[in-house]
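Lecture notes, unit on protein representations.

Consider one protein chain, 205 amino acids long.
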Amino acid sequence: MAELSLSDRALQAVREGRFAEGAALYAEHLAGGRRDPGAAANCAIALRRLRRWEEGLRILEPYRGETLPAVPYTLGHLYSGLRRWPEAVDAFREAARLQTSPDLDLSLARALLALGDYEEGFRLFESRVDVPGFPARRLQTPGVAEWRGEDLTGRSILVWMEQGLGDQIQFARFLPQLRGAARVGVACHSAVAPLLAPLADEVFA
């Protein structure tokens, strides 16, 4: 059986969660000026998993402008790790010009929200329900439509809480704005039900 190449061994290590070993093997593969965008992106991905943001950037920034979507996408996450949000937004937008996905839209949304661009950030944040494993989902109830901002006067609305308790508490402050026009029901975690009860007409925990 033929011995695996350095890059193949590195890829195997990363896939098995041995990120430090994978990054070291990729760095060895890239030594001597070898130019390999895929290997550089994979090396940076491993370094990102190790939270070694600056090292990842040193490996990957020389490949900025490559048409491989993983390059700007991974750069966006490295910049995000360093809270360099404008550069993260630019990198994610560059990735989106090459390839779109719900995960990319969600990554861009988070960077935009961190910059205070709530309009575009929250619009793109809707992609979270299409990201596998993300703790959010749409209600699939026949005859019940998702609210899109239309007039609620004389109507009822069910607010579906998602993600962690902190998120539920943070956004509950907007419930009184809805209650001024509509009958408001809230579906939430039982631990926060007593806190949210005064803000809604009905609580489902």
